[in-house]
């Protein structure tokens, strides 16, 4: 009896995991990206490694670069592309019956996986070393691998490098991350090869969103905006900050998000002056402001929204004055964002607009702050001219620790052909809208 049940169970587990990837990472989308990357590389091999483990207590999330090019959520996978031939080979760990029972089957168990996923072939990981060795027999082998650090769910490559430098303050923490270790392994195995960093070429592709990515980001903007609105409705003096986090998190998870784009910030009173405060356990009091920074991870794409509102539902005159300055700077910056303009031009145009309207910006600069995509902070130079299809965040803030006041207003925007679209526009941010929301809640 057991012999007949176990294979049936394995088949059920396996078949349940062959779900289609989200539309922005369909086989067609990923095939086009791989073709553009191979054309940009021009020659040699391109090697990318998938994520191997889930963070403790969290759902597995595939490496951003790997998922962008494959749409494959399997652990421990390796993608090898032959640029001149236009070939893409996916290698996956061979699994025993117990591994399949515990974790589910990977693509090796899917019939015709290569044709369905538009790959040259799908093979077992045990074949990878020999495959690479055969490719290295050319006169001058070139290997494109990720020599820069990989980005994470909420941090770009530069930030990941910064955090690694901070860890190395203690020499006991100075261990190579996976990217450094893999690059060293490739150099050791194939000393004749010239290694080149593939990350800059991938970053250029990721910077401009496809129509499918844009549609998912629009949905995420609406979803995350409503979650923030639910947090506003939950706000009351005497409530803990975590109640607002729970309202927002429950909303996005209950409406299709795979998780959160970053650890939510719910910072009341003086906590709002700590930019990355995330304990979210303080008791909120009447007369204070609460600053919330939140976004969902939907279809492997992130959203980033910040709002600040009064705990009791009404701004004091001082809070109103500070809030209005931040809001006017943010609105002027967004209005200045359009294709062809760079950060310096946006600052100049927005500052001139504020001066013409005699708005006191309280020293705030009209800046764009970071790009958004597979990572909340997508890596790209902020001084480059804006292009249609870019997605970025605008988040001015004022912080007065001595007064216990911090105000930040942030929206994620899409650069369009003639301006920009605010993807997170559904969250109230005008003073009258916020106070009206509190006045009319149940």
Provide an overview of this structure.
The chain is α+β, with helices and mostly antiparallel strands. It has 14 helices and 18 strands. Strands 4-3-2-1-5-6 form a 6-stranded mixed β-sheet, with helices on both faces. It has a 4-stranded antiparallel β-sheet with strand order 13-14-17-18, with helices on one face. A 3-stranded antiparallel β-sheet has the order 7-10-11. A hairpin with a 4-residue loop joins strand 2 (78-82) and strand 3 (87-92). The relative contact order is 0.11. The protein has 2 domains: 2-207, Creatine Amidinohydrolase, Chain A, domain 1 (3-Layer(aba) Sandwich), CATH 3.40.350.10; 211-440, Alpha-Beta Complex (Creatine Amidinohydrolase). It is elongated, with a radius of gyration of 24 Å.
């Amino acid at each position: 009896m057991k012999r007949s049940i176990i294979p049936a169970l394995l088949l059920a587990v396996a078949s349940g995991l062959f779900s289609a990837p989200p539309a922005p990472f369909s086989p067609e989308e990923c095939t086009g990206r791989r073709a553009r990357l191979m054309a940009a590389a021009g020659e040699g091999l391109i090697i990318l490694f998938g994520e191997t483990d889930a963070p403790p207590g969290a759902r597995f999330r595939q490496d951003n670069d790997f998922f962008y090019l494959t749409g494959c959520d399997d652990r421990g996978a390796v993608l090898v592309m032959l640029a001149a031939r236009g070939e893409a080979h996916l290698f996956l760990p061979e699994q025993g019956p117990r591994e399949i029972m515990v974790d589910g089957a990977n693509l090796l168990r899917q019939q015709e996986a290569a044709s369905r996923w538009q790959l040259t072939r799908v093979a077992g990981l045990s074949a990878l070393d020999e495959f690479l060795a055969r490719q290295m027999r050319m006169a001058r082998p070139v290997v494109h691998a990720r020599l820069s650090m990989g980005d994470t769910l909420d941090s770009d490559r530069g930030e990941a490098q910064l955090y690694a430098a901070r860890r190395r303050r203690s020499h006991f923490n100075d261990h190579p991350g996976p990217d450094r270790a893999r690059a060293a392994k490739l150099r050791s195995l194939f000393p004749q090869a010239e290694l080149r960093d593939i990350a800059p070429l991938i970053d250029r592709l990721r910077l401009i969103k496809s129509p499918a990515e844009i549609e998912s980001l629009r949905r995420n903007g609406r979803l995350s905006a409503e979650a923030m609105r639910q947090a506003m409705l939950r706000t009351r003096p005497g409530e803990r900050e975590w109640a607002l986090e729970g309202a927002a998190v429950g909303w996005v998870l209950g409406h299709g998000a795979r998780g959160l784009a970053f650890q939510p910030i719910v910072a009341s009173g003086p906590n709002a002056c700590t930019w990355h405060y995330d304990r979210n356990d303080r008791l909120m009091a009447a007369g204070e402001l609460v600053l919330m920074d939140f976004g969902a991870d939907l279809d492997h794409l992130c959203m980033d929204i910040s709002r600040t509102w009064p705990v009791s539902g009404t701004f004091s005159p001082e809070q109103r004055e500070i809030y209005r300055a931040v809001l006017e700077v943010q609105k002027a910056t967004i209005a200045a964002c359009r294709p062809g303009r760079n950060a310096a031009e946006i600052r100049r145009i927005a500052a001139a607009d504020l001066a013409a309207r005699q708005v006191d910006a309280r020293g705030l600069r009209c800046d764009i702050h970071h790009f958004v995509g597979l990572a909340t902070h997508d890596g790209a130079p902020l001084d480059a001219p804006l292009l249609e299809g870019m997605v970025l965040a605008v988040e001015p803030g004022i912080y007065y620790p001595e007064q216990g006041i911090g105000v930040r207003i942030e929206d994620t925007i899409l650069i369009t052909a003639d301006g920009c679209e605010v993807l997170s526009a559904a969250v109230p941010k005008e003073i009258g809208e916020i106070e009206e929301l509190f006045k009319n809640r149940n």
